[in-house]
C-alpha cells in the first residue's frame, strides 16, 4: 500500500472525540438472494473508505442471484480519528464475525475485498471454510517503507494526506476520509502480516483482480500473494483500464462478470 511521504511539518492534531453519524452512502447493507439462497458473498471495502466504494461490485454480483453482505469495518465511515484508535484485532474479528454469520445462514460463502479488504478476505479464508476468495488489488505490502514505522510515528504525526481516489475514470469519486490516520496504518501493517502468514492455509480457489496501474499497492504485494498461495487454485484477471480502486473504475463490467463466473465455478466445485 503506497502512502504519501511522511512530511517534515507540524503534525495535524486529533480533534476532540465526538459522536458522528455514518453517512447513508457509507452504511453497511445486505442484498437478499434471488434464486440462490444457498450462496452468499461477503464484500469488504478498503482502508479509509467504506461500503459506497464496493456497492456497484456487490450489486453486480448479487445480480447472479446470490445474497450479498457488505459490512462497515470498525473505525470507518465516521472520522479518521476513530480509525486511528482502532486496532487490527478488532477489524479482523469483525470480518470473521460477518463470515461466521453468513456461514450460519448459507451453504456456500465467498469472501471478497479490495485493498485492505482483500487482505482481510484472505485472512478470513485462512481460518474459515469459504467456497472461494475474490480480491481486487489486495494490500499485503506497503509502497512507502516508512509505513512500517507507523507504530512509532503515530505519536509524532497523527495523520497524513488522503490516499483515496486512485481511479482512471474521471467521473468516478471515492468517498473516504480526508486524512490518513497513521495509527490506522499501523493496524493495516498487522493485518497484512497476518494475512500473509495465512496464505498457505487457503485451499479455496482465489481469483485475483489486478489493475494495470496502481499508485497504492506495489507489485511486491502481488508477488507475495502468488508466492504464498501454495495450496489454492489461483486465477489472475487483468483489469487493463483501471487503477487501484477498480470497483469504481472503467473495468467494472469485467470485474462483475468475472466475479460472477468465479462464484458459479466455486459453487459447482463445492
UniProtKB/TrEMBL annotation:
SUPFAM superfamilies assigned: alpha/beta-Hydrolases
Pfam family name, one: Hydrolase_4
This enzyme's EC code(s): 3.1.1.1
Coiled coil: none
All residue ranges annotated as the Serine aminopeptidase S33 domain in the record: 36-249
Signal peptide start and end residues: none
Region span, Disordered: 1-23
EC supergroup of this enzyme: hydrolase
Molecular function via GO: carboxylesterase activity
The protein's name: Carboxylesterase
Amino acid at each position: 500500500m503506497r502512502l504519501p511521504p511522511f512530511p517534515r511539518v507540524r503534525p495535524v492534531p486529533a480533534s476532540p472525540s465526538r459522536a458522528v453519524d455514518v453517512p447513508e452512502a457509507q452504511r453497511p447493507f445486505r442484498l437478499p438472494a434471488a434464486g440462490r439462497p444457498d450462496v452468499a458473498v461477503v464484500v469488504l471495502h478498503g482502508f479509509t473508505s467504506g461500503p459506497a466504494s464496493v456497492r456497484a461490485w456487490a450489486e453486480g454480483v448479487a445480480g447472479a442471484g446470490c445474497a450479498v453482505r457488505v459490512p462497515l469495518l470498525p473505525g470507518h465511515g465516521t472520522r479518521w480519528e476513530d480509525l486511528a484508535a482502532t486496532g487490527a484485532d478488532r477489524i479482523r474479528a469483525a470480518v470473521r464475525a460477518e463470515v461466521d454469520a453468513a456461514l450460519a445462514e448459507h451453504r456456500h460463502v465467498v469472501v471478497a475485498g479490495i485493498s485492505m479488504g482483500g487482505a482481510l478476505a484472505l485472512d478470513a479464508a485462512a481460518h474459515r471454510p469459504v467456497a472461494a476468495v475474490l480480491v481486487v488489488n489486495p494490500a499485503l505490502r506497503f509502497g512507502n517503507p516508512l509505513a512500517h514505522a507507523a507504530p512509532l510515528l503515530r505519536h509524532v504525526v497523527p495523520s497524513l494526506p488522503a490516499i483515496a481516489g486512485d481511479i482512471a475514470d474521471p467521473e468516478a469519486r471515492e468517498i473516504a476520509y480526508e486524512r490518513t490516520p497513521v495509527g490506522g496504518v499501523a493496524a493495516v501493517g498487522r493485518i497484512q502480516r497476518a494475512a500473509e502468514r495465512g496464505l498457505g492455509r487457503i485451499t479455496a480457489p482465489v481469483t485475483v483482480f489486478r489493475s494495470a496501474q496502481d499508485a497504492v499497492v506495489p507489485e511486491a504485494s502481488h508477488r507475495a500473494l502468488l508466492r504464498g498461495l501454495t495450496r489454492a487454485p489461483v486465477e489472475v484477471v487483468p483489469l487493463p483500464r483501471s487503477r487501484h480502486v477498480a470497483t469504481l473504475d472503467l473495468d467494472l463490467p469485467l470485474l462483475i462478470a468475472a466475479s460472477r463466473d468465479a462464484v458459479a465455478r466455486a459453487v459447482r466445485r463445492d
